[in-house]
Amino acid sequence: MNTILVVAPDVRAALDLGKPVVALESTIISHGFPYPANVECALTAEATAREEGAVPATIALIGGRIHVGLDRDRIEHLATAPGIPKVSRRDFATLVAQGSDGATTVAATMMVAAMAGIRVFATGGIGGVHRGAEASFDISADLEELARTDVAVVCAGAKSVLDLGLTLEYLETHGVPVLGYATDEFPAFYTRTSGFGVDARLDSAAAIAAVLRTRRELGITGGVVVANPIPREYELSHAEIDGVIETALAEATAKGVRGKEVTPFLLGRIHALTGGRSETANKELVYNNVRLAARIAGALSEGTR
Ligand code: PSU
Ligand code: MN
Question: Which pairs count as long-range contacts for 177-184, CB under 8 Å and 24+ apart, including other chains?
Fold first, then answer.
């Protein structure tokens, strides 16, 4: 294990001292954005965590070793090398055993964060129950991981390429709380609203940290979704994004896209169809999530000193 899990020295030092650490994923780098937006997003996300007093730990597989904290060269590699595999729980051991690289999804990043002792993770959007899942059975492994792994995931909700109602039902069944940060509504990634509620509204990072601490005291395991709406100034309108999503979904169906290719395909088409606006929105919501995650990690770390 020690030789497979490579924890960067600054991440190791922060964890040992009980200082705030925020985990970041890498599927967003290899499959979520085109180059060079992916490098910019990854580096700015890390800088944002530091500005807020937390150490960023970007997680990925490099040559079969699980890295917790990446240097710039490795981020560039994940952003530019062709065919980096997308790693979820299912793929993890196979890719490690083969000495492969891999970009970790929310599910795989949660697994690694838990192995390393990191409690808070920031991303853009989580995977969920896809529209038409009653026929395709396409339900993201992110939801199963949230059911089992003790990490809080700060996100801007989920894209409406998914069936958000079914996604929330699934989380409820598996006992995963959806906490709204300063919102009563579950946000839909590009938009602040979705028409669906959250389980509880909490208006400060300290209040969210208190819930995480209480879960631990009570021995309640599993993940927590912290839903943080995109900042108003970067929000897209439902009118602008809904049509694009319908087009992307229709193209995926027409092309017969299946399995782990579905989400990257849809993300790529949305970016291509909306150009710079959705890319800016996507980057900014990530930074906004990193800021909140760093504050939650900070509040947790104050509670333990
Ligand atoms: N949703 C987004 N952006 C993303 C992803 C999802 O808006 O980058 C990525 C995350 O890494 C997430 C993964 O964990 O896609 C989910 O893939 P799937 O639906 O195949 O489980
Ligand atoms: Mn899927």
Answer: 177/211, 177/224, 177/225, 178/225, 178/227, 179/208, 179/211, 179/224, 179/225, 179/226, 179/227, 180/227, 181/154, 181/208, 181/226, 181/227, 181/228, 181/229, 181/292, 182/229, 183/227, 183/228, 183/229
